Amino acid sequence: MDEKHTSMLDEKMRFFQELLIQMVNRVEESILLAHAAFSNHDEELAKKVIANDWFIDQLQEMVENDGVRLLISEAPYGHYMRHIIAGMKIVSSLERMGDHAAHMAKMTRGEDFPRFAPFVQRISEMALLGATMTRRAVEAFIDVKAEKAIEVAAMDDQMDRLRDELNRDLYALKPETEQEMERILNLHYLTKEMERLGDHVTTICRWIVYMEKGQRPKLNGPKLQNPAIPRV
Length: 232
Description:
The chain is 81% helix and 0% strand. The chain is mostly helical. It has a single domain (3-224), classed as Up-down Bundle (Methane Monooxygenase Hydroxylase, Chain G, domain 1), CATH 1.20.58.220. Helix 4 (117-143) packs parallel to helix 7 (178-213). Residues 222-232 have low confidence and may be disordered. InterPro entries: PhoU (IPR028366), PhoU-like_sf (IPR038078), PhoU_dom (IPR026022). Plays a role in the regulation of phosphate uptake. It is found in: Cytoplasm.
């Protein structure tokens, strides 16, 4: 590949990365807005989150289409090819994260049972953790830093702990009405949705490691210690 071709490919890669970063920003915004809508019982804000999910889907399609064009027309090699493949995989996880934010927004209520207020707050904290993980993951993506990605993936252990504690306390509740039973089930479902945010970010982090190292190790819990990933 000559110098002129490489320069043109670099420019196209910057556009590809910018599209992906725009999608990350949209997803992070949706999670934060869903958190605010859910914790503050703001149904109007929830509608904005649901509407934003359409734009996230469009950005996913744009990234995937641009990635396919690059693979076909540019015949990229080495780190270029890994970057494109990782980006096309990452947007799938981002799209699902946008769905989880939209689901959280759909469970926003103008009023709620007072006894469930602590659970709403704790689920909202899981959403904030998911947003934090998302932001740190994109920083690792921009810098193409495997070690940063591994550190972000380790945060999923905290998300799992929050899920387990919430499920334990939700199961201990004794519903007094059919409406309370329905709300408990919905909160349990939403707890699982928020935990999935951490799983998706972990998947993204695996692809970031692939970008730099050429391998996708299992990232979670104790396995993160000294992963010994060779550069390929």
